[in-house]
Amino acid sequence: MQSGIRKTSYLKAILLLVLILSGSMSAVALGAPAGVHNGEVPFGGGYAATGQIGNVGYSSKIYDAISGLPTSDANYILCSSDGYIWLGCYSGIIRYDGNTFQRLDTGTGMTNGRGLFEDSRGRIWIGTNDNGVVVIDGSEQTHITYKDGLPSSSIRVFSEDREGNVYVGTATGVCYVDSEMKVNSLDDERLNDERILRLDTDFDGTIYGQTKNGLIFCIEDRTVKQVFSSEELGVERISTIKADPEKPRYLYFCTVGDVMYHGRFGEKGDEMDSISTAPISGVHWISYDCGRMWISSINTVGYLDSNKKIHVIDDIPMNSGLEMTTSDFQGNIWIASSTQGVMKIVADNFVDYSSIAGLPEEVTNAACMYRDELYVGTDNGLRIIDKNDQLVENELTRYLGDSRIRCIKRGNDDDLWIGAYTGNLGLIHISGDGDITGYSTKNGMPDNEIRCIAVLSDGRVCVGTNGGVAVIKDGRVDRTYGEKEGIKNTTILSVEETKDGGIYAGSDGDGIYVIEDTGVYVIGRDEGLTSDIILRIKRDTARDVFWIITSNSIEFLKDGVINHVDTFPYNNNYDLYVDNSGNMWISSSYGVYIENVDDMLNDRVDDYRLYTVDNGLTGTPLRRATWKWTIRGISISPAGAAFQR
Prior knowledge:
Elements: H1 10-22, H2 45-49, E1 58-63, E2 76-79, E3 85-89, E4 92-96, E5 101-103, E6 115-118, E7 124-127, E8 133-137, E9 140-144, E10 155-160, E11 166-170, E12 173-177, E13 183-185, E14 196-201, E15 207-211, E16 216-220, E17 223-228, H3 230-233, E18 238-243, E19 250-255, E20 259-264, E21 273-276, E22 285-289, E23 292-296, E24 301-304, E25 310-312, E26 322-327, E27 333-337, E28 341-347, E29 351-352, H4 353-356, E30 364-370, E31 373-378, E32 381-385, E33 391-392, H5 395-400, E34 405-410, E35 416-420, E36 427-430, E37 436-439, E38 450-455, E39 461-465, E40 468-473, E41 476-481, E42 492-497, E43 503-507, E44 512-516, E45 519-523, E46 534-540, E47 545-550, E48 554-558, E49 561-564, E50 573-578, E51 583-588, E52 592-596, H6 597-601, E53 609-611, E54 621-622, E55 628-629, E56 635-636
Antiparallel strand pairs: 1-28, 2-3, 3-4, 4-5, 6-7, 7-8, 8-9, 10-11, 11-12, 12-13, 14-15, 15-16, 16-17, 18-19, 19-20, 20-21, 22-23, 23-24, 24-25, 26-27, 27-28, 29-56, 30-31, 31-32, 32-33, 34-35, 35-36, 36-37, 38-39, 39-40, 40-41, 42-43, 43-44, 44-45, 46-47, 47-48, 48-49, 50-51, 51-52, 52-53, ...
């Protein structure tokens, strides 16, 4: 996967978009989401939301009792090194593998979850609200209770020193569990009656902690070394802390007001850097994720940029009961809420270009790049966008009005062909000089509802309508093919040129009509089609095949034989496009699949990518003559095999 991000011109982006849309698909490739790996360029929702990835948006998804999570509360989230997402909830511990939320058996003490931690050995430590600690080590579980020496059964936080001792923050002080799983007391009268809310380890292995009453402390060599009250430091009550991830002995902490402090542990507030967190006040969580310091109050999340300026993430649906933030290995941000469940912020794999260009929220049917302008066919007329992302109104847009535009194709002579489905406009031709000519039933077209267009190699234009096929030649309707010519089902969903200059016409119930000079014949079920409804026929000259999408399968025609791709995982597909890197993009009612073309030809589909609304697709494709987005318009995916930005 290409993880580097680089910027290209508007023209290159739109040109590839047009290549796809003119072939009926409206997106360009983006590699699968990825986080930071070995210092590579980062990618993921956390980096997108903080503006560290240019021109990449982000979206969010809430998981609650309605959308798959067994509950709508979450106190803590842990993204473990093996890729699992662990949730500490009042109803127990839930583990998420990316597909399924599994509530773990409560029989070993996991009755609820307040804190989670993964130690250096990969063990998962679970702090419960009233039942001590449970440690999961592979298939083994160990339950540690007050009988083993815990100062309290109510556990909030954990941390680990360089010797592998795991420190446990309880409702009445701190203890640690050594490598032999023995509980050791940290008896300190300053902390014994304190509820410990945060523990964190710095670069050198020093443990820092914070209590509900605003005390902060450090632990070295298994001993509480220093304790400071908020009053001693001259600040409002300290509400949370975070060890500086890069500078030993340095600490970030927030107060119940709207100020964050950064400096050496033990320094007074007026000696430290003071950072305003306004409009966020009462910050109770700080985390360092995706290269930024994140803060959250009970109802707001934000981050500090490289200049230590606060930015609020205010366009997410989670806004109550916020508990904490963290990130997964893909660079996505996860937020826990005690009232709304959990939420994930992901990088948008697709850019909503309709929004960028100021298009209204409407169904988009087709797009085509013509003379440095993007022509977009919608259910409500033609939209033209110039290279400055501005809408253009001209004679053509006024001519088409609010007609539904189903297809747009460039001709061979710097001209343009547009198929209108409503308004009785039929087929519209725009010459290189800008002259507009209409072809309708008034001058020979079989029907005015245009579904599809193909520009043939000799300059003729083949048009599929609800009344059959028409061929335009030398500025007039040259031939039509309907019931008299052998086309029993005249609703034509797709047209394509055959290798010898004939026409394939995919029908809505009678298979593929092959139109040649000698007549018309049918390719149907007896010849290998799995359905007589043909949604798309696409010629693949590089592989000398014709790809066929039926109502229930993907097939291809090679050397006169139809081959079925049995291993493709979905059957309700609409359209396909093959990019220059050998990837096939397939739109479906589920989303967008990407698969290697050779695997499709060899019927060995086992490693595909799938994009849905859950990971950035701005709408779900609908079944139309061209790939159509629901409501939101055009999507562009900004990086990957076919296009990098």
